[in-house]
């Protein structure tokens, strides 16, 4: 099923003409409304009339998360605050979040993009959709909410957490579509079965999962666990939120909404643009965003693009499932966590050394983070009260900055392994459970 068939099935020529027109306008728009871009573009000698074809995009400098951070909170906004109707944020690499703002048009385009990928896997106005993403600064819940409402679904904004209640509502309210991270869906299906709820009592038929990767093995388990058709969708707050791309019923890649996003694949080390079909880092230019436009934003997500027309009839390019990151960002219970954030917290605490290890585990399909920190004074080991105070202080500060609970384990001086080269601080055991 299509939500905007004319757009979703445009010929390649039409798509490229539209993209070029929008790209030229965007360059002008950024030049005139965002001092940061004005400086960058001027330094690079780029003006809208120098962009003659799509490949001329290569002359525009990349934008990174650090650029957003350096202009915290609103420095990259292209409109005055009176035109912003929504603000979201995601984790930055330091304690400060990455802030994004939306105009009314942005919200409208965003909900179109979300409605498209929902319709593409068969969601329609008869559906009852349970949104089990956390409502808040995270883009997942409200992004799906507006898109599903636009499609005419009955939305249950239950938010995340309280899993037994989630399972009860799934059954009692007759939800036919579930929206969550894949790991939370898996956990919820186990809780539902433990509560004695069988799939026959549920009306679930489609899962719209995203915000983190999902292996084929996990997808199979969720499908069996809940008796639904599990689909993947992708996005990020800096670009909009969910809705950048999503699978169709054939699940052979995620269609990127190419009228709003212009994708490129680059070599993440050299910055060189790679030919179609090669694997590398996804770079996206937002073609229509008014609130906080992004010129060649480096997503750090590794994937590959396929331009052949899909069996579903959609012509918009498909990206393969995200295959990893070119930086060290971790997704823990759907939340972005950077080891550098943890380091910045630890640096503020007296009594601990800069040596630490992050141990990630998964139990009941839920991620757990343990931060093992070395104390710097053996004498502390003798004093239980001081140790406990230190541990609580670290746990509290980590929770404030990361937004998720971490278990803090203090260990004796010189017990964490030292490395001569790049330190290996992350021990990820999460796939051992699957
Ligand atoms: O996770 C937006 C989103 C919400 C997408 C709900 C889909 C559904 P951020 O919190 O800014 O935004 O995190 C963005 O999450 O760069 C990827 O590394 C990762 N990610 C998002 N979707 C997927 C996916 C939202 N389907 C970061 N598969 C991105 C793998 C994903 N990784």
Please supply descriptive tags for the structure shown above:
binds 5'-O-[hydroxy(phenylacetyl)phosphoryl]adenosine; Rossmann fold; GMP Synthetase, Chain A, domain 3; 2 domains; nine-stranded mixed β-sheet; alpha/beta; 24% strand; 20 strands
Present the secondary structure layout:
Elements (H helix, E strand, L loop, with lengths): L4 H4 L3 H22 L1 H10 L20 H6 L15 E5 L7 E5 L1 H17 L7 E4 L7 H13 L2 E3 L6 H10 L4 E4 L1 H13 L11 E5 L5 H11 L2 E8 L4 E7 L6 E3 L4 E6 L13 E7 L10 E7 L1 E2 L11 E2 L10 E3 L2 E3 L1 H8 L5 E12 L2 E10 L8 H19 L4 E5 L14 E3 L6
Parallel strand pairs: 3-4, 3-5, 5-6, 6-7, 17-20, 18-19
Antiparallel strand pairs: 1-2, 7-8, 8-9, 9-14, 10-11, 11-12, 13-14, 15-16, 17-18
Bound molecules: 5'-O-[hydroxy(phenylacetyl)phosphoryl]adenosine.
Strand content: 15-25%
Radius of gyration, in Å, reads: 23 Å
Ligand names: 5'-O-[hydroxy(phenylacetyl)phosphoryl]adenosine
E-strand count? 20
- Overall mean pLDDT: 94
CATH superfamily of the largest domain: ANL, N-terminal domain
Ranges where pLDDT stays below 50 over 5 or more residues in a row are none
Amino- and carboxy-terminal Cα gap: 33 Å
User: How many helical elements?
Assistant: 11
